[in-house]
Design goal:
Number of strands: 3
Structural class: mainly alpha
Largest sheet: 3 strands, mixed
InterPro entries: TPM_dom
Protein name: TPM domain-containing protein
CATH topology of the largest domain: Diaminopimelate Epimerase, Chain A, domain 1
Organism: Chlorobium luteolum (strain DSM 273 / BCRC 81028 / 2530) (Pelodictyon luteolum)
Number of helices: 9
Order of helices and strands: HHEHHHHEEHHH
Number of domains: 2
Keywords: Membrane, Transmembrane, Transmembrane helix
Distance between the termini: 9 Å
Length: 211
């Protein structure tokens, strides 16, 4: 856990706060709330290649201009090593790679990864199909809410964008724990209206933040 994505987002106290709020929210509903934090939803290899091509081409042209080099072989002699170096930098350092990742590609990757996580983590396996995933992808600066079919049949889908917006804003302002806690409270309120706590209800999914 020490080097997990959760630690990039929350302090240990913040993590305990969020997990306590999940427990409190679920005390009033038969629904299950899961929070998951990931480093990134895709490796964006295309962005690494495009970024390396763009960067090495600009530098190679500039070097050729100042050195007075002429011809394709001189250009390639500078361009190829630069491409290798820039590509390695982009692969290894996410903030640099993000400069060349298209927003549409990131949104698509987060959508697919959050849905895959919903099934991979068994959130779709609750007794009444009342699991909901709050998925946070750090590289893309994006949040998605994935709700099971039981919730989608009763909760207005327009309720989720407001919840997502609050989390994103809180993370940007350095108040991730507070924003997540507020979102979990809101999620608990929405679920309790349609899925109140039942006699003999049990905690089907762990309250621990996933990563």
């Amino acid at each position: 856990m020490e080097h997990s994505p959760v630690r990039k987002l929350l302090t240990e106290a913040g993590q305990r706060q969020v997990e306590a709020r999940i427990k409190a929210a679920e005390a009033g509903t038969s629904g299950e709330i899961v929070v998951m934090v990931v480093e990134e939803s895709s490796r964006y290899r295309h962005a690494s290649v495009v970024g390396a091509l763009f960067s090495s081409m600009i530098v190679a042209v500039a070097v050729g201009h100042f050195q007075g080099g002429d011809g394709m072989w001189h250009f390639l002699g500078v361009f190829v090593p630069l491409f290798i170096v820039f590509h390695e930098l982009l692969v290894r350092f996410a903030p640099l790679r993000r400069l060349f990742a298209r927003k549409g590609d990131m949104a698509d990757a987060v959508g697919k990864a959050s849905l895959a996580a919903f099934y991979a983590k068994g959130i779709n396996g609750t007794e009444a199909a009342t699991g909901v995933l709050i998925y946070i992808s750090l590289f893309e600066h994006m949040v998605r809410v994935v709700a099971d079919k039981g919730i989608n049949e009763k909760v207005d889908p327009d309720a989720w964008p407001e919840l997502v917006g609050g989390i994103v804003q809180g993370i940007r302002s350095g108040e991730a724990a507070a924003a997540l806690s507020e979102a979990i409270d809101r999620c608990g309120e929405l679920l309790s209206r349609h899925f109140p706590i039942r006699e003999g209800d049990r905690n089907e999914l762990s309250n621990q933040i996933r990563y």
